[in-house]
Design a protein that fits this description.
The chain is an all-alpha fold. It has a single domain, classed as F1F0 ATP synthase subunit C (F1FO ATP Synthase, Up-down Bundle), CATH 1.20.20. The protein contains three helices and no strands. The longest helix is centred in the N-terminal third of the chain and has 43 residues.
Length: 98
């Protein structure tokens, strides 16, 4: 029984780490590309700096929102009651009780 609990719990922790890590990596790459394209646009047409800056910050805010949602979902999976663990424990209890 303890083996099932530890296996499901460790798999959950690994899944949360992958979720947050890959989400953060994607956001970092996206922000780097966004900043680079912003600088290219400003270098090409300096008179559009204000408009480009506003659009860049809007998109950067959306990227940050995605990162926050990713972290919140990961923390929910980490600290909420695990439905897979609950089902596994019920199945083990049914087998032991039979």
């Amino acid at each position: 029984m303890e083996g099932i609990i530890s296996a499901v719990s460790s798999s959950t922790v690994i899944a949360v780490a992958i979720l947050i890590g890959l989400g953060g990596l994607g956001i970092a790459i996206g922000m780097g590309l966004l900043g680079g394209k912003f600088l290219e646009g400003v270098a090409r047409q300096p008179e559009l700096t204000g408009m480009l800056r506003m659009q860049m910050f809007v998109v950067m805010g959306l990227l940050d929102a995605f990162a926050v949602v990713s972290v919140v979902i990961g923390l929910y999976f980490l600290f909420a009651p695990n439905p897979i663990l609950t089902a596994a424990l019920k199945a083990v209890a049914a087998v032991k009780g039979a």
